[in-house]
Structures are given as C-alpha cells and as structure tokens.
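can u do me a favor
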C-alpha cells in the first residue's frame, strides 16, 4: 500500500483479538467491573477525498466486541479514520448505536507508529454528540485514544470520561486491547 495513508497504512486489513479489558460500570450488578472481551475489526482504504484544497485518505472501519459467552456483541462502532498529510492531522470519526457520535483528532507524522487522538463535548473541531438520555444519565465529557502499530498487530488504550448519575466525580471508562492481523 502506498504512503498516501500515512500512519494509517499499518492499520489496513482485518483484525482479531482476545483478552481486551473493558473497565466500566455494570448497571446489572451496580459495580465497577473489568470484563474481558474479543474483538473483530475491518479497515478498508479509500481516497483521495477532496475538500477544496484539502486532500484526505482514509479507512472505512467496522468493529464489534463480545464478552466471553455472549452471542451478540455488547459494543459496535462504524466510521472512518482519516489522514491529512498537509497538516499531519489524523482523525477517527465513529458512531456507537447507543446514540453517540465522536470525531477525535490529533497530529502526528506520516511514519508514526504511535499517536493520540482526543475529543470533548463542546470542542469546536473534535467533538462528541450524544442523545438526551445519555446527556442526562451518562454523558461522555471527553474521549482519548492512543494507538500503537506493530508489524502484524495494533493496540489501543482508550479513556472516556463520563458524568454518571451513580458517581459524584467523573468516571473513567477504559478499554485496552491488542489485535492481530488476520487478512490484508
């Protein structure tokens, strides 16, 4: 794959992983709990996309996560990863079917193997949108993800800060996982 995709080039393909850890509040048990999960993720390249003088290359991605014995995924995402070589801007835009949309971004170099993207409620460029229920009960205040790309693997470390009715202080919902490439 040519270098138009910059740091995203190492993410192109189909990925799987077991042993991810979801640190979250479990409403059914009324406790904070770490849950192991497996994940399947596909990232397909596209581009160029022209926005006036801006040129973007991207990855169309879909991801699903399952707890150990569940038939249906407990979490899914669909969206795009984008690279703007002129500005060094890297972005991840995605939707979660709980009523959340996120556009996270940051800057890095074309040959980077590690980078961080962030979003926050009310941020002018990198923002979070959510439905009324979530805004009242479990509002996502900020999102941060660090990506590390290896030869045939990539890992992420995510932190979503939530204002939840169950807690007086913001709660850090975290997800950490390493996926292995199963197809180009």
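np, heres the sequence
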């Amino acid at each position: 794959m040519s270098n138009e995709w910059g740091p995203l080039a190492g993410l192109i393909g189909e990925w799987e992983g077991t042993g991810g850890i979801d640190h979250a509040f479990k409403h059914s048990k009324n406790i904070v709990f770490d849950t192991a999960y497996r994940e399947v993720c596909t990232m397909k390249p596209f581009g160029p996309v022209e926005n006036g003088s801006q040129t973007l290359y991207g990855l169309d991605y879909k991801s699903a996560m399952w707890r150990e014995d569940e038939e249906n995924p407990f979490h899914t995402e669909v969206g795009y990863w984008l690279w703007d070589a002129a500005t060094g801007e890297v972005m991840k835009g995605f939707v979660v079917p709980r009523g959340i949309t996120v556009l996270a971004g940051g800057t890095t170099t074309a040959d980077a193997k590690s980078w961080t993207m962030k979003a926050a409620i009310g941020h002018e460029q990198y923002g979070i949108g959510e439905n009324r229920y979530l805004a009242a009960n479990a509002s996502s205040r900020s999102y941060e993800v660090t990506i590390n790309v290896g030869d045939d693997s990539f890992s992420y470390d995510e932190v979503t800060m939530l204002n939840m009715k169950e807690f007086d202080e913001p709660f850090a919902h975290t997800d950490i996982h390493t996926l292995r490439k199963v197809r180009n």
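Residues 3-183 form a domain with the Lipocalin fold (CATH 2.40.128.20). hope that helps!!
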